[in-house]
């Protein structure tokens, strides 16, 4: 019988393999690295944008009355932080309430369109027509119909937000993977069981796409509504201070709107990740 022995080193001893890193520790290190990159890349982009802004203002490529330097905008915010933050809270509340209304209505309308081809053919052209109308032209009419205050602002947010949610919901519910549909039929599941167990969960990624598209639109709708009918809010601040030539304060309000939009979008992404933990495992990662 042949004596098979492990290959030895020059010193005559069998080399030992390197100590294995525990799987949990390796994943934690990777998560920390990804979190650091995720935090540094947006910060780097922000610094680049601020540098370009400072350079354009320094060279006066755009008149300072239209684009003040970053230092002037920061000084304007430092002069009246309480007032700006108060209006930020008002605008954020209008964005969230209008977005919630449009999300509920959009999902329900999408369910109706996906449930019946007759309903889809009957109302899809009308929905497209409503979405195609420039919403800013409806502002004065909303003021006449609903008066000043929150009602026309929420209506404007709703009109801008609901169509992407309707479209994504209907698309998600009508594009259930064929293998899942066959599985449901093989178990003789009822329509309600198929909807609750398969069709709606499979449509959730598409629905979240529509929600993420609609979230920035909600901020745009709130500002447009405040331009037309607002008595408070960041849109109201922009209109008031730009009208008296204080563009630095107006730009401070614009930046606050952008920050609110970024934070709300990031919160929605987190909700998606916690609601759909299986999504990243079944799709390609970047």
Automatic annotation (TrEMBL):
GO terms for cellular component: plasma membrane. Keywords: Cell membrane, Membrane, Transmembrane, Transmembrane helix, Transport. SUPFAM superfamilies: MetI-like. It comes from the Bacteria. It is found in: Cell membrane. Belongs to the binding-protein-dependent transport system permease family. This is ABC transporter permease. Gene3D superfamilies: MetI-like. The chain crosses the membrane at residues 32-56, 95-114, 126-148, 154-181, 202-224, 250-271. Pfam families: BPD_transp_1 (PF00528). The keyword Signal does not apply. Residues 88-272 form the ABC transmembrane type-1 domain. Residues 1-22 are annotated as: Disordered. GO terms for biological process: transmembrane transport. The lineage of its organism: Bacteria, Bacillati, Actinomycetota, Actinomycetes, Micromonosporales. It comes from Micromonospora zingiberis. It is a multi-pass membrane protein.
